[in-house]
Amino acid sequence: MQSLRLAGKPVNNENRRAAILDAAVVLFGERGYYGTSLQTIAAAVGMTKAGVLHHVGSKEGLLEIVLDEVYDNHNDEMRERYLAKERPLMAQMWRDVVAMNAERPEQVHMFSTLDAESIDPDHPAHQYFLERDRDTIDLMLDVPWDVPEGVNVEQLLNAGFSMMDGIQLRWLRNPESDLNELWAQCEDQLMPLPMWDGYR
Amino acid sequence: MQSLRLAGKPVNNENRRAAILDAAVVLFGERGYYGTSLQTIAAAVGMTKAGVLHHVGSKEGLLEIVLDEVYDNHNDEMRERYLAKERPLMAQMWRDVVAMNAERPEQVHMFSTLDAESIDPDHPAHQYFLERDRDTIDLMLDVPWDVPEGVNVEQLLNAGFSMMDGIQLRWLRNPESDLNELWAQCEDQLMPLPMWDGYR
């Protein structure tokens, strides 16, 4: 990975903590939680392991921070934005999520790696991902989506977020691909015309 | 993981090799390729590291075997089966794939973990997964699928296999869930009625 040292920035607590989180995102993505030591993270930011622990408490604490604080910090805002809309359309919400993720490949890489690694019930993020699968749907079910008659909103959300997981893996693996374009093709399958005419 | 020693079986080369592959599937799934040493695999089957190397050549060789020989050994047969059908329906093909995967959770776990871990361009399975994304679609495009007018078969295949990746993660994480049931809900979204009436 590229160096994440604090080149050119004032060395203070805030910058140090931010550099640790940046390094953890990249390293957890490339090597997983199991494959990344606090020592490697410390070396990447030019600190000691004790210095890293001072900022994040523990390796498990660091994992919680990069998931909760870094990766998932947009979820509530997204829900609020769609709750406020007069006519919330699911296709628009997914395009918003995809556009956001297209701008943060390293975070999506981390998410994808931890998502699979945490299938293991002993993984410290197992419960987090288990609850997240459910919470993401519940959060979005609060929004009165305008969908064609007969559509099962809960099942559509589950199917759509599953599709997004898979297409993001294909995007990350192929640096020439464009996530927004890939998703546009997915949208055509998930919300096909003419059935979804006027609803996307 | 549970012991994978050769309890009760005659100790010969074939059984030894099979035990190594079984252990590698479980350990690559739980800890990833990076997180699993040949020493751990050797210990799991009650052999020495040198003994394991005698059977599989190298750690990279073992990775290739569990992907090519163990995980992907059904692909050609599936394609042949659908090429031979008078009226091949994509919904049936996906149900067949899902029914097969529902019976092999440890292999799907391994696949999911390596799928994400190999986003890293330095990962030894990076090229394998990159080509597999493309090859799976190409293989299936040979089949003259009977689909409703206007459906883009290539995009549908890409969207459907992406959805399957995501729903399999949810299934593996939640031992109470049933992959066939989860997929039935996905199918209703991916091939909605009445558009797909008579085509699934």
Automatic annotation (TrEMBL), chains A, B:
Top-level taxon of origin: Bacteria
Key words of the record: DNA-binding, Transcription, Transcription regulation
GO terms of molecular function: DNA-binding transcription factor activity; transcription cis-regulatory region binding
HTH tetR-type domain sequence ranges: 14-74
Residue ranges: DNA binding: 37-56
Entries under InterPro entries matching the protein: Homeodomain-like_sf (IPR009057), HTH-type_TetR-like_transc_reg (IPR050109), HTH_TetR (IPR001647), Tet_transcr_reg_TetR-rel_C_sf (IPR036271)
Protein known as: TetR family transcriptional regulator
Entry-linked Gene3D superfamilies: Tetracycline Repressor, domain 2 (1.10.357.10)
